Amino acid sequence: MTAGNTLAQDLEQAQRYGIWAGIAGLQDPALGSQRLCGPAVPALAEAAVSSAAPFLRAPLLDRISAALLLHREQDGWCPTCLEPAPCPTTRALRW
Questions:
Q1: For residues 81 and 89, is the Cβ–Cβ distance under 8 A?
Q2: Whole-number Å distance between alpha carbons of 13 and 18
Q3: One pLDDT digit (tens) per residue for the chain, 95 residues
Q4: Contact call for residues 15 and 50 (beta carbons, < 8 A)
Q5: Are 81 and 90 in contact (CB under 8 A)?
Q6: How far apart, in whole angstroms, are the C-alpha atoms of residue 64 and residue 90?
Q7: How many Å apart are CA 90 and CA 82, to the nearest integer?
Q8: Secondary structure of residue 77 in the 3-state scheme
Q9: How many CB atoms lie within 10 A of CB 34?
């Protein structure tokens, strides 16, 4: 996660990158006669990436949730890091 951005912003940016990659892939000359061109290409790429996004995000969000459980505050301390809560891990994983 980049400084100053939330997880949600980073995931949205990743989706935009995926759409751009999808557009380029659908229009790739290497596809030959199956290459797609025209105004529908961005909509097709967005639909494909949007359909796949939950399957891509779920494992990431599962791991983040598991890490947050390990770093849950107990009596003002992180039991994993042994630092005052919220520990750096918790701060980095919050969204």
A1: yes
A2: 9
A3: 454 467 778 888 999 999 999 999 999 999 999 999 999 999 999 999 999 988 888 998 899 899 999 999 999 999 999 999 999 999 988 76
A4: yes
A5: no
A6: 10
A7: 12
A8: strand
A9: 8
d(CA 38, CA 45): 12
Q: What is the DSSP string of 16-75?
A: HHHHHHHHHHHT-GGGGGG---STTHHHHHHHHHHHHHHHHHHHHHHHHHHHHHHT--BT
The amino acid sitting at 95 is W
15: CB partners within 8 A, 6+ apart: 49, 50, 53
Cα Rg of the chain (Å, integer): 19
